[in-house]
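S.,

Sequence below, as promised.
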Amino acid sequence: MNEVNVIRESNSCKRLTICFVCLTSEIGGLTTLVSRRAAWCKKHGLNSIIITRGGPWLDLYKNSGSDTIVLTDREHDFPVAIVNEYYNTINSIAARISKYDPLYFESYCSKTMFLTSTLLNLFPRAIGGGYIVQDKAFIDMPRQIVKTLVDNGLIYSMNEACFKAHELSLGASFTNKKIFPLPIEFNGTDIPGDTCFNEYTIVTIARLTKMKGYISGLISEMPKALEKNNKIKLIIVGSGEEHGQLTRTVKKLNLHKNVVFTGSIPENELGNVLRKAHVYVGMGTTLLIAARMKIPCVMACPWTNEAVTHGFFGEKCGFEVGEIIEGEPIYKCWDKIFEIFNSKSLRDHIGNIGKTKVAKDFDEDVVMVNQIKYFNTLNKSLINVPPPAFSITQGEFRRFIKRFCYGNDKAIQIGRIAHKFLMQIKNKL
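The prediction came back faster than expected:
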């Protein structure tokens, strides 16, 4: 038995159902990751359940998985739920998935891992673990618990850099790091980008959040870039809380002729924008989509308002797609962009090696098969994971509001909108 009692021994058995527990409130990389993985399972004869909350991505989930369980506003706020309310939620979910036992639960943050841990008490043949896809997903879990789960192979990640970020933030060293890279469909039939250009077009696709601060850096440094080449256009695809600040910067720098905001675009329509790209700058899934089309990609680093990079996608070993890599040199994105602008042979070379790397390391038919095999060899599972920490004041306040509004989903929904608005104001201060 581990010194932190979050592991239980489980009988190994073939699990033909994957249950994805994803309660994110935003459309972005995690949303598309879950939908792609669920769709792959369904396509290959495995059951895939998505436990989620209502939102604009719900139709995408319903079309991807075998089954979708949508939690109400009251149900998904389980970390501060009244005890009876919480167990009503658990029993309701368990009843809806009981026909799929044995199964594998996959969580994406400490909040959903807490929910998964409780569900596992009702499914002794099930296994549950977590997938780190962002560097702050499990940061509010106690360090020793995260370390125990990782060392037992129950938290895995998409690359080494994600693990390194967690080791740094938690002050821990992990000994059993399981890596399954971002999976993406690869059939070799994508139409490549244009080869002739009247202007030099940069495309980036991202949620406009503080994490994607490189977009602010690209815009701020664009006037100097235009002094070298006045035919540059930057197309920004996506939406988010930073949209207002970015548009104000564009107006201040008089870049309205050179910077275009398209808003969010469905994934199946991204190719129409990407085909205009001379070069792609970004990270994550959309970078893989661009590289799949032989578009040269500059990997942007997150969590900085400077547009910096470790280089071109395809040049380095590993499964990183924009994360900060310890010990690797950092360059300015604009310097790498101009290298592509100034050399057609380099553009062709980076495009070719990028597409080759996607096929070799990120093809979902390879990644998902390896991951399903791994699930079916596990004989341990998480249990007793604590809820995310709230301050006493915050937790009791939320419980009071829930009691006051109990039975009134509309009141709770209005409260969420007000809370989100106040948080946006706080972030701008």
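The domain at 200-362 is CATH 3.40.50.2000 (Rossmann fold).

Coffee later?
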